[in-house]
Design a protein that fits this description.
The structure is a single chain. This protein has 2 domains: about 30-60; about 60-160, no CATH class. About 55% of the residues lie in helices and about 0% in strands. The protein is mainly α. It starts with a helix and ends with a helix.
Amino acid sequence: MTVRSAQLAAPPVLPLAPGCRSGPGWGRSARRRLVRLTVTLAVAGVLVPLAGVAALWPLTPAVRDAEQRITARLQQHQARDPHALGGPDKVGVAVVATEDSRFLSHHGLDMVGVLRAGWTTLQGSQRDAGGATLDQQLAKNLYTADTGVGEGGTDRAVVQA
């Protein structure tokens, strides 16, 4: 056989894998393995985050003591009880209007604000998009260390108010 006739010859036929009835390619067992792998990854993609939430759930603070924390913070700074002021709460209405205009229409997480803040961040803007609701700001101020406002933390902001 010459070199030229060897080039024109048909490629050799590969032997079939054991248990494979059709030719080379995606056999039934390979498809089953692929489906099993896909289902396993999908289930793991749901169960792993759920397990993480379940593990961290006991570490989250309860809100049962929020009113006591607020009262203690006010007493610490010799502030008056806001309930004792009486009359229309113009300051409260003004705060809600400027800080969280959708305060009465969401339950602590304003998806419009979150999406706007995410979009602003993705665009690379350095300005604060204001995605935190009043509920989130209260939780941050009550349950985290005083590292927030200005150089003196949130205690300084409470005293200034």
